[in-house]
Design a protein that fits this description.
By secondary structure, the chain is an alpha+beta fold. The chain is built from 14 helices and twelve strands. It has helices spanning 6-11, 24-43, 93-101, 120-134, 181-187, 193-203, 207-215, 228-247, 316-332, 355-364, 375-385, 390-396, 398-406, 409-412, and strands at 47-52, 56-58, 65-72, 104-112, 139-145, 165-173, 256-263, 266-273, 279-285, 299-303, 337-344, 370-372. The strands form two sheets. A six-stranded mixed β-sheet has the order 1-5-6-4-3-2, covered by helices on one side. The protein has a six-stranded mixed β-sheet with strand order 10-9-11-8-7-12, sandwiched between helices. The longest helix has 20 residues, at 24-43. It starts with 5 loop residues before the first helix and ends with a helix. 43% of the residues are buried.
Length: 413
Amino acid sequence: MAFKSRMCSLCKGRKLLCGKSKCPILEKLRVFDDIKKKFDKKLNKNEIFGASPPSIFVGEHNYPNVRIAPLVPPIDGDTSFMDSPLKWENKSIKAIIKYRSMLVMGETKNININIYKTNNKNSKILESIQELAMSLKPVDSEITLRRKPSLDIVPCGFAPPISPKGDLLKFSIAENPKIPSKSDYIVNDELKATDSIISLYNYGFDEYYIVKLLSAGLLGINKKLVPTRWSITGVQDTIGKYLTKKIIDYPLINDYEVYYNEFLGNRYAVLLIPDYYAYELMEVWEKGALFGCDNPPVLGDYEDLKTKGYAKETTGAFYAARLSVLEYLNKRKRQSKIVIFREITPDYYAPVGVWQIRTGVKKSFDNYAYKFNTLQEALNKIDELMGAPIEAYRLKSRILSKSKQMRIDDYIF
């Protein structure tokens, strides 16, 4: 395996020249080596049988002709923990990499996103993948690959947890998937994708299940495959907009509230301001973090009720973090302005997906709520909790600069 990074070649994982607390390359290699020792006979062949969590993947490269894949581990039983972020809240980065590395990906390439253009051979694979996506419980499945699965290691930790993979020749489901009647009804109904997502959410299905349905081309009137990464953001954004419409009719909170949490090498501080809805996420990648530098800038995105367009600096993190706060406010039947501060430390040595942002912010509301009478008091507390100076955030923030002018009662009363 050849490393493209000169720093990685010089370091060899011993000196930690990149500033990370652990070498992400060696961590992935150690995890995969452990898996190979345990499951070598089951992995070292081109036919893999096991219980898919269930798990699917739709790539975005070469869009609109994409790659699709079922993911199957070489074990049976309850494998749901391998592909369920809801079960990862108390797990380490190493454990998550291990779960993902046990799933073998059988890829079919150059599938047009318009599912009705799929040829006969690939349409059978797609139908089986769609059945898999609709199941709530693990499904005994078998994949046949052209060759034994291979594991590609991307240096410097930029790649998310990846699976052993190979070109798919055949995919079959060995049992009837457990498909909920409500999701089956929505999939077969003439509903827009947005309406389908909200209906499923209100029925109590978690967003990760909904993401699989959207990715597999099962939602909407003109059904199409949607790359997994786009589906995650699309579902979280759709639910977020739905909740925003609800909370703007609620009364304001009474105090300035601050919540704090540390999760998988990330720090999160959430500031709720007693004012009408607007939302902002700011983040700093510290020196030694994946995308850190000597003088890390504050990145940020903002929205109010008039804002349109995609979050350009914080991308998918913007929608994941927003959804957790909106659910909290909706539960309280209250409205506020929202400012989230995120700092990524070197301990976040390998990316595991935006679910950790969703979870990290969500868990902050399980912790102590600091309440203050003024904005300045709240910002002083955040300055204590976070690493970057609060003034750096002030200079970037649109909400904090506006709030300083608009909330005159902070200074009068």
